[in-house]
Amino acid sequence: MRTLFIEDRKEIDEVIRACKTCYVAMSDGDVPYVLPMNFALDGDTVVLHSAQSGRMWETIRKNPKVCINWTLGEELAWQDVRVGCSYRVKSKSVLVEGEVEVIDDYDEKYRMLTETMAQYSDREFKFSKPAVVNVGIMKVHIKKITGKVFGAKAVTPWNS
């Protein structure tokens, strides 16, 4: 079994959109911090939302650089059932490195909330003014994006 890079951005976006949770890693000096979060993909930005205070916000204000992970798939596979090191979880994974921009503009926050809900539902949603004003919206501008397939079947002349 092999690990292969996903080169096609469309396929990378499909992996992201198939996930319900992303994991956002950040750092306050030498202290790492990771949070599971809901998200939306909006072109070359990832939209995140939360309350406007707390450890995450304190960390982001000190260092706006983040890394985000999405992983899809949990099927266990192996090359030899008796060899522990031959076991893998067949999955696809995407990593984004980027920088956070905090969004304060009301109309843009409303649009980002709409994008986020579109990740989870086909319904149309409305948001009250207090809900929009009181939510924290972050855009992560993608600086680097990579995708991988883990546990892929090796392609040889006899199985291609």
Automatic annotation (TrEMBL):
Pfam families noted in UniProt: Pyridox_ox_2 (PF12900)
Stored InterPro entries: Pyridox_Oxase-rel, Split_barrel_FMN-bd
Superkingdom classification of source: Bacteria
Protein name as it appears in the record: Uncharacterized protein
Lineage: Bacteria, Pseudomonadati, Bacteroidota, Bacteroidia, Marinilabiliales
